[in-house]
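Sanity check

After download, print the first record. It should look like this:
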Amino acid sequence: MGFLDAILGRSKPKKANLDDLFALPPAALTMQAATAFVPTGTGGVAFREVEGGAFAQVEQESRALIAKDPDCKVRQVNDGFGYTWQVITDANASTSNLVTNMHAVNSSLENQGFGPMLLCSTLYFAEPSGRRAALVYLYKRGTFYPFVQLGPHRRDSALEIQLRGVLSGELEIESDMSKWSPVWDAPGMLD
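Expected C-alpha cells:
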C-alpha cells in the first residue's frame, strides 16, 4: 500500500490463496450441524473464457484430470453472463473430494497465468424442503460469502446473514456485503 492509499483510506484487497478452499469441508460440517443444509455433491468454478490455444489446453487438461476420478463427473456450462463454469459432481457427495478437484481447476488456470480470469468457486447445499444455498469463494478478494436463491432473481438475505454467523469462525467471510454478488441460476444452484 502506498502513501496516498494510506491517506485516502484505500486498502489493497486480500490476495487469493487457493488453499483457503480446503476450509470448506469443516465449514460444510458446521453448516450441516447448525442448519438443515447438507452438501449436494456439486461444486463449480467460474471464469471468463479467453480465446486461444493455451487457455483451451488448460481447460481441457483440468477436465481430463477430474475425469480420472471415478467418483466425479465434470461438465462445462456457459452461463449467459460471459462466464464459463466447470461444474463438478461427486457421486458420494464428498466435500473433500469436490474441493480437491475445484482446487485443481483453479490452480491449473492460475499456474498458466490465467488467474485474473477466475471469478469464483462455489459449493452447493440443499435443505430437505428443496431450498438451495451456495458458499461462494471470491477469487479476487480471497473471501467467502453465502448465497441463497429463492427464485428467479430473488435471494434470502436474512438467511445469508444467519449463515454468515454460523460460518464466521470457519471461513474468511467477506465483510463488505456489497461484494456478495448473486450467482443467479448458477449451474449446480438449481439442478
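If your output differs, re-run the checksum step. Summary of this record's structure: The domain at 13-179 is CATH 3.30.70.1710 (Alpha-Beta Plaits).
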